[in-house]
Amino acid sequence: MASPSDLSKIPIQYVKGVGPKRAPLLEKLGVRTVEDALWCIPWRYDNRLEILPIRSVVPGTKVTVRGIVESCRVAVTSRRRLVLITLVVRDETGVLECLFFNQPFLKNTFTPGVLVLLTGVATLQSRHGSKLMMKAPFYELLDGQEGEQEVGRIVPIYHETHGVSSKQIRRIMQGVLEQYRHQLIDVVPFSVRRSLGLPSLAEALPALHWPSLDAPVGLLNAHETAEHRRLAFEELLLLQLALAMRRKHAEQSSAGIPFPQHNPLVARFRKALPFSLTTAQERVIREISQDMSQPTAMNRLLQGDVGCGKTIVAFYAMVNACGAGYQAVLMAPTEILSEQHYASLLPHCENLGLSCHLVKGGISGWEREESLGRLQSGVARIIVGTHALLQPDVQFQKLGLVIVDEQHKFGVLQRARLREKAAWEPDVLVMTATPIPRTLAMTLYGDLDMSVIDQFPPGKKPVETKLFMRSQRKAAYGLIEKELEAGRQAYVVYPLVEPSEKVDLQAAVDGAAQLQPFFPNCRIGVLHGRLPSRDKERVMGDFRQHHIDILVATTVVEVGLDVQNATVMLIEHAERFGLAQLHQLRGRVGRGQQQGFCLLLHALGKLEGTGLQVPLSLEASRLSSSEMGTWPTSIPEVTRSMARQRLLVFAQCADGFALAEEDLKIRGSGQVLGVQQWGELKFRVADLARDGTLFMKAKEVARDLLDRDPELLEPEHHALREKLFLQWGDKFSLGVVG
């Protein structure tokens, strides 16, 4: 009997047209099996229903033309060392010139006499007489009769890799469909497909990979078709089922600790607070207290913008656990942040008579034995540390509460590894100062209850954000100088530690030396991730004690540094950062009573625009973070557009949650907040920024299915159950298929 797993067991090299040499190339695109190939759908479609003669091209409109390569020449500009490739194409009606940037290999691609198809927006250039020109068009070589078959229809375009073109992938996909279409098994129940108006898998895949000759032009917006929604829905449904089953199993098996809602230690803690909690903090404390009083273990996500007061709420939960005789652990992603937490919690712990202990990596011998002994004996009641807490020899006497800060910096399974160090099921509180879009949060943390601190302490001033072009550097320095003269301190943030041959950026170690002439009377320090721990501590200590006026740093300061006298931050090459990271960096200034300033220095020229911008095209949203980090001297216009949009949004919006939603729209879910760190949540078709409505429908369908058939054991659900455990069983510890 056929199984949903059958096609996932057939290596792609055995497909016609692949073989052992081409298979490794396809693996770079994530295609390892026949099933991978079927789900590797085109990222866009070319409309080749109408091929225009060059003479009929209207400037300013997107068109497709076909012609013979007449010439191809390469030139290098003297000023910016930019490689220009000029292609001249001719048909029987006229001549078109195309310009490509920094792709010298095209000289060998566009040999005279080759037939080429070009798609792009033509403009009329008049510098040397009127002539049509396309800048960086999409191109494809047409090789005789086989190429001509792809004219006069909607043609799928796939992501390519060196050695495998989109055209070659089309041929492979046609072979896969012809050979394996009859083995497709639809795991989405017929009743669900019918109610949602979705086609079967056997109908959807051929329509996406090789549209029929009469395919509607609307297919060009592939994500709007029923076929695309069908595939996206299956991915979202499987994930929602996994999350729901995981949560259900956790509720059934997580016999937790019923902490008392009131104890003397908590009362002493609240009485000793030198300030009043906000309404939002009080609400979240009630939610946490209610969870901790239950006989099942707490699993809660605490979201809150930078500076909203999450740490004191987390400390309340820790005091609640310690007051009942248990230990509480706080794990942070960096040594800087763990040391900051330790320093801020220590005075509160001393007032309450609680032993607070910092677990560091890199220690050995008697020092490590003594540290581990404090944990195992129960002498240490509140423990703060980094990944060092996950080491096998780190054990606790009576662990009752696990708090994970900046959870998106960790993998999903690390949370479980720390929780497993208790002899019972401890309560878990996950914190993040990186606001997460609602659909993304529901996906990443679908097994957790959620709390949000959406209010700032009274008197906190929003940080002023200002944009500066590179030519305005002196004006930005002038603002820094004004703050320094007032006795304040400043950060200057760079994206790299050392110079790179590939990336045209200044590094922090060079930036410090270049800053000194502009601020000759200031003390400048350098902080980056490659410094030894002892040196990091020394630099941070000097900055806190105002022995350093300007701290030049990499994004290691993104979390953890809390220096209230630091009021201004200059971010170099701001166009290279994502919105979430910019927002985290901005949160390092304005932490005291003085006004904070965030200065963004960029290479994008004059920026104009007001309000939140309209999301960019699909092409722009698919640019990866690695592409963003390796721009050539000439930044592609689509990348410039996305960077402009991001900086304008950031400068005009201080609300972290609003920025998170915009970041999701601009970059897509694959790049937001380091989602790749969850590896297993990388969708092949679905996109949380675009498929929010479908996401909610999948959640509703998953709930209904599990209400009727909790273990998916009914015959019509067998295939769905097998696919679910095949895809998510190991990652979400769902058990094995019965």
How would you portray this structure in words?
The chain is α/β, with parallel strands linked by helices and 738 residues long. The protein has 4 domains: 1-43 and 167-210 and 223-253, no CATH class; 48-157, Beta Barrel (OB fold (Dihydrolipoamide Acetyltransferase, E2P)), CATH 2.40.50; 264-453, P-loop containing nucleotide triphosphate hydrolases (Rossmann fold); 464-680, Rossmann fold (3-Layer(aba) Sandwich). 37% of the residues lie in helices and 17% in strands. The protein contains 25 helices and 21 strands. The strands form 4 sheets. Strands 11-12-10-13-14-9-15 form a 7-stranded parallel beta sheet, with helices on both faces. A hairpin with a 5-residue loop joins strand 5 and strand 6 (131-135). Helix 8 (226-253) crosses helix 25 (718-728). It is globular. The two termini are 17 Å apart. Mean pLDDT is 81; it is low at 501-505, 609-638 and 670-680.
List the keywords.
Rossmann fold; alpha/beta; 4 domains; 738 residues; seven-stranded parallel sheet; OB fold (Dihydrolipoamide Acetyltransferase, E2P); six-stranded parallel sheet
